[in-house]
Every structure is written in structure tokens, then in C-alpha cells.
Design goal:
seven-stranded mixed β-sheet, Rossmann fold, alpha/beta, globular, 365 residues, single chain, Quinone Oxidoreductase, Chain A, domain 1, 11 helices
């Protein structure tokens, strides 16, 4: 076994604290990764606090992981010792269902869906079969740690043009916004609306702009107006009814990145006929949708979940090619609880990324 140290929550009401555990030795077709950086995602907070009612404790979060390959198992051909690599939200899937066979591992239809980088299978803990699940484990520990062991085909290559700390949030925030824009065919010249201007919204705006779209971001925060100007995109305050009315039936695609329950009805009228508003930020129930707003112009409200492995590699390469990435602040792991508080209270405009070398401060204490 491989000794490991990370930060974990023991209960829904507890702070993240140092946690020692063990990883399995690297096996066939597996890669051992020394973690350098891990992004802080809003879903980490939801999971730690059991807000989706499926958290398995102890919970070691982290699914925006960048590190270097330290060891490889028999049969590994995609990666070599010393490679800079990334791991996103998934570390395995059933590999046999139709979505997996089609390359959509993020929609795995196996008994437990895809295997999450942390918090084990994507099912409520009470439904995990006795003795584990089809992956042989009922919990997984994520990237708020010094080492990971992952199947080689679920490990992504970090392009040399991307700084590793900048690449980390692209593994979730980047692909979560890129994937639906690709699926719904966003192209140069399209008018794209981004609802919410947090970590996801920032990446969505940058990606859409790099695709050649005409981008408008909708926010409730007047202080985000200057941020839009810096990025070269338009910013509209959601409560400005005159501006919303002026934008009626003008958007080819809209993406909601708001991370909690919200009302999409005010934005449906901004779509052109036959166009879609896709929700990626919230996994809980939304406010009821007025179908009359949809039916009269054949519009759609849809959902999208992270992205598959091909999309994740593609967005990493796209960001490297276009010189874009999230605005980040690198923090020590010892500051993680304060970072969570600031994210929850909307006190940050960037993505936190943990420098995992700071774990040594605990080990040396």
C-alpha cells in the first residue's frame, strides 16, 4: 500500500482537517501521480456538507487534479514517469454500457454510473451493495491529497503551454462549460448568453469568445461590469428589465452556470426559435419552467453533466492553443476552510487552486 495524506471532512458539519490513509499500489494499466495542484470546485463544498444527500465520510474532496507521473503499472502506454498529467471528475466507468462504448463515460449507465474521483460511486451511500460496488470499493479519496492512483485512460495530458495551476480548474469548470457548447454546436458569429459570472461563468465566457461567439454575461453583481469589459464581453444586470426586453429572441444559445436553485424563466424569452438554454451549475430542482414560453417557439431547457474524456482533453488543448484559462488564486491547504467560506458567500471572483506541496507543513509539524 502507498501511504497518503490529505484533508478530509469527517461529518457534514466538520471542517476539513489533515487525514492519513492508504492508496492501493499501482496495478496493471494504472498510473501513480504525485499531486502538485488541485482546484477548489463549488461542488466540493456541496459534497463536504452532504447537500446532495449522498456523501460518504470521511470525504477527501478534489477533482481538478494536476500532478506528475511517479510510477506506472504493467501495460501502461499512454503516460511515462515524469509526464505532467491531470485527473478530472471521473477515475473509471463500467466501460460496457452504450454511453461508455460511445465515449460518453460521464453518462455511464452501469449499475453505479461512473466512478467519481472522490466520494465513491455516484449513488446514495445507503444503496451501495454490501461489500462495495462493481468497482470493488464504496468510497474514493480525491485530489486534496499528495498522491493518486488512476487507470491510465482516465488520465489527461496537460499541454506544455498551460501552467499546471491554471490547468487544474479546466478539468472541471472548463469541460463542464465547453462540453454543452460543443454538443449544441456553438460557432463563430453565434450570440451566446452566459447566466452567472462566477468560476464557471468566467470560463464559459472565455471559451465562447475564443470560439468566435458574441458573448453576453448576465449577473446580479454590479461590480462584475468591469470584469466583463476586461474580458471583452457584454455584461447585463439580471434585474434590468429594460435591457432584458431589448434582448428578446436574440440568442442562439444560453448557458446557466448558477450553482444553486434558480429561475430560468426570465431568460427563455431571450432565445431564438429552436434554440436551447442549458443548465450546468445546479444539480438540484429548478424553479418550475413555464412550458408556454417553450412551446410557442419550440425552445428547450436542457441539462449537461461535466464532459467525457475526449472533451476534457480537447478543452485543455483548446485553452492552450488560445491562451485562455481561469483567473486563479493559489492557496495553501491550511487555508481551505476559509476559502470554502469565501466561495459560499460570493466573496471571490476567481478559482482557488491548492498548492499541494503545502501538505508538507502538516507532515513536518
Amino acid at each position: 500500500m502507498i501511504p497518503a495524506i490529505g484533508y478530509a471532512a469527517k461529518h457534514s458539519f466538520s471542517r476539513l482537517k489533515p487525514f492519513e490513509f492508504e492508496r492501493n499500489e499501482v496495478g496493471p494499466n494504472e498510473v501513480q501521480i504525485d499531486v502538485l495542484y488541485c482546484g477548489v470546485c463549488h461542488s466540493d463544498i456541496h459534497q463536504v456538507k452532504n447537500e446532495w444527500s449522498n456523501t460518504v465520510y470521511p470525504c477527501v474532496p478534489g477533482h481538478e487534479v494536476v500532478g506528475r507521473v511517479a510510477n506506472i503499472g504493467p501495460g501502461v502506454t499512454r503516460h511515462a514517469v515524469g509526464d505532467l498529467v491531470g485527473v478530472g471528475c471521473m477515475i473509471d466507468s463500467c466501460r460496457h454500457c452504450e454511453p461508455c462504448q460511445s465515449g460518453d463515460q460521464n453518462y455511464c449507465a452501469g449499475p453505479n454510473s461512473w466512478l467519481s474521483t472522490y466520494n465513491g460511486p455516484m449513488v446514495p451511500a445507503a444503496k451501495v451493495p454490501e461489500g462495495g460496488n462493481m468497482y470493488g470499493r464504496d468510497n474514493t479519496f480525491g485530489g486534496y491529497s499528495d498522491v493518486l492512483v488512476v487507470k491510465e485512460d482516465f488520465v489527461l495530458k496537460i499541454p506544455p503551454a498551460l501552467k499546471p495551476e491554471v490547468a487544474a480548474p479546466i478539468l472541471c469548470a472548463g469541460v463542464t462549460t465547453y462540453s454543452p457548447m460543443k454538443h449544441w454546436g456553438v460557432k463563430a458569429g453565434d450570440k451566446v448568453g452566459i447566466i452567472g459570472f462566477g468560476g464557471l461563468g468566467d470560463m464559459a465566457a472565455k471559451l465562447a469568445k475564443a470560439m468566435g461567439a458574441d458573448v453576453t454575461v448576465f449577473t446580479t453583481s454590479p461590480d462584475k461590469l468591469g470584469e466583463g469589459e476586461r474580458l471583452g464581453v457584454k455584461v447585463v444586470l439580471e434585474k434590468d428589465k429594460e435591457q432584458l426586453a431589448a434582448l428578446a429572441s436574440s440568442f442562439d444559445f444560453m448557458l446557466s452556470t448558477i450553482p444553486e436553485k434558480h429561475d430560468v424563466n426570465p431568460f427563455i424569452g431571450l432565445l431564438k426559435r429552436d434554440c436551447a438554454l442549458v443548465v450546468v451549475g445546479a444539480l438540484e430542482s429548478l424553479a418550475p419552467v413555464n412550458n408556454q414560453l417553450l412551446a410557442f417557439h419550440r425552445k428547450s431547457v436542457a441539462g449537461s453533466l461535466i464532459g467525457n474524456l475526449a472533451d476534457t482533453q480537447e478543452v485543455l488543448d483548446f485553452c492552450a492553443e488560445h491562451g485562455i484559462g481561469p483567473d486563479i488564486e493559489v492557496i495553501a491547504i491550511q487555508d481551505i476552510n476559509d476559502a470554502y467560506r469565501k466561495v459560499e458567500h460570493g466573496e471571490v471572483r476567481f478559482r482557488y487552486v491548492i498548492d499541494m506541496s503545502t501538505l508538507k507543513a502538516n507532515a513536518d509539524a
